[in-house]
Design brief:
Elements lengths: L12 E4 L3 E5 L9 E5 L12 H22 L3 E5 L9 E7 L4 E3 L2 E3 L18 H16 L3
Antiparallel strand pairs: 1-2, 2-3, 3-5, 4-5, 6-7
Helix pairs in contact: 1-2
Amino acid sequence: MSTPPTIDYSKFIIERGPLWTAQLHDDQTYLGRMIIALNRPAEIDWLDLEDADYTEYFRIARRCKQALTELFAPDMFNHATLRNEWRQQHVHLIPRYIEKREFAGLVFEDKRWGKNWPPYDKVSLPMEKLMEIRAAISAKMALTT
């Protein structure tokens, strides 16, 4: 049995704050999907975080949302903190779209609009396309405060 290739997730980092890191999710079924992860190792429940954790989380999450809104105009966002496969505290920021979006020469369609975001057919994009999406979000976030 072969081992699946390991992904260097550090390539997906968009912004690293003192407490949280925002990064592009490697599955872009939902264009602009991001993960915002607590920097310190913490298998901690969302409701057991410290006040400072929430303050910085909401600062960075709002900036992510603003950047995604300006770039892709999502119709709404889903937010999920699950910790099933990756126990580290993190939150998924999932843009949702009523109509198709085009970016980097690709068409993205939210086939589950009006339903929960999972389950879905995962999209595997070439690394150069993922890096284009990451760069666009990163550049937009650099302009937000």
